[in-house]
Amino acid sequence: MTPLRLLFAALAIWGAIHPMYYFITWFQANGWDLMAMVDAWHVNAASSGLVWDLTIAAVALTVWIVAEVVQRRMWLGLIAIPATFCIGVSCGLPLYLFLRSKPGT
């Protein structure tokens, strides 16, 4: 495995674990109510801006993944889409780059 693929794998793992730590901590303190978390994301203009920034990035990443999967027939790349929307762009993007950089694809 190349150093770049290892870096993408490490970033995908970090992008899964680090945000989830904060999400789980919040849920434990405030209850397991997803809509309450969404409300907390929009507590002020700065956090709303960040939410929209990440949402637009997630949609752009999804369009890119789908377009490349159709072209390259690398179906495994589709797992980056639920990773993006269930965990975050910090996991989905490096995961897709890791999968995309596999030799022979």
Task: Please tell me about this protein's structure.
The protein is an all-alpha fold. The protein has one domain. It is built from 5 helices and no strands. The chain has helices at residues 3-30, 34-41, 45-72, 80-86, 89-100. It is elongated.
What structural keywords apply?
79% helix, 0% strand, 105 residues, mainly alpha
State the gist of this model.
This protein is mainly alpha-helical and 105 residues long. The protein has one domain.
Taking pLDDT < 50 over at least 5 consecutive residues as the criterion, the unreliable ranges are none
- Tell me, what's the shape? elongated
Major sheet attributes? none
Helix content: over 70%
Secondary structure tally: strands? 0
Number of domains: 1
- Overall SS class: mainly alpha
SSE order: HHHHH
Number of contiguous helices: 5
The radius of gyration over CA amounts to 15 Å
Strand content: under 5%
Distance between the termini: 14 Å
Give the mean pLDDT. 95
